[in-house]
Design goal:
Length: 206
């Protein structure tokens, strides 16, 4: 999922084009709610590290699949594209998840915005990023080779907020260890699926 994404199977009437970092959550929501009309294809999760690649990749995926589905929904927020992804989706006539990034829509965009001023020194991790902490945080930042860089990168943060999508004690302990690695205070905040669930549920309504 990190490198290659997930191919569409062609079973549903609506195609979700999503970040690979959201695949598990979307599949869990599909299974729990019986959303068999939703099909899923994922772009590589590593684009989280290269947001300049997201817009073109989404455009290509929409053009590739649109003839095979009644509708397409993009399961990305802005995610560092500077508004370009929204502009591209508008031009293509497809909708996308509202919000600046996944941390916001997992928390709930309104709730996240309300806390923004008091939490600008918080570093956020989701279930996916806790599982992939080394691949998405430690190695890309060179902390495995140069641990002395930690304070340069994270010196302006004061806490790590683990936005838990699920109740998993092992993940919570791993998230706590991530906070220790970064020298940050730890807070676990159960968010569930937040506005992601709402956005996908809306696709199920006539």
């Amino acid at each position: 999922m990190t490198e290659t994404g997930l191919r569409a199977k062609g079973a549903g009437s609506i195609l979700l084009i999503a970040c690979g970092a959201l695949a598990r959550e979307i599949l869990d929501l599909k299974a729990a709610n019986g959303w068999t009309h939703l099909d899923l294809t994922c772009l590589p999760a590593k684009y989280h590290l290269y947001p300049e690649k997201i817009t073109a990749a989404v455009q290509d995926a929409v053009k590739k699949h649109r003839a095979d589905y009644d509708d397409i929904f993009v399961v990305y927020a802005d995610c560092g594209t500077g508004g370009q992804l929204q502009q591209a989706c508008d031009a293509l006539g497809v909708k996308m998840v509202a919000g600046p990034h996944c941390y916001s829509f997992f928390e709930g965009n309104d709730a996240f915005a309300a806390k923004a001023e008091e939490e600008f020194t918080a570093f956020y991790l989701t279930d996916f990023l806790v599982r992939q902490f080394d691949a998405f945080i430690v190695k890309p930042m060179g902390l495995d080779r140069h641990p002395e860089l930690r304070d340069m990168y994270f010196g302006n943060y004061d806490k790590l907020v683990y936005q838990a999508q699920t109740d998993d004690p092992e993940l919570t302990e791993k998230a706590r260890a991530c906070a220790e690695t970064l020298g940050l205070a730890f807070e676990r905040r159960y968010t569930g699926y937040g506005d992601l669930k709402t956005a996908l549920a809306d696709l199920s309504r006539p």
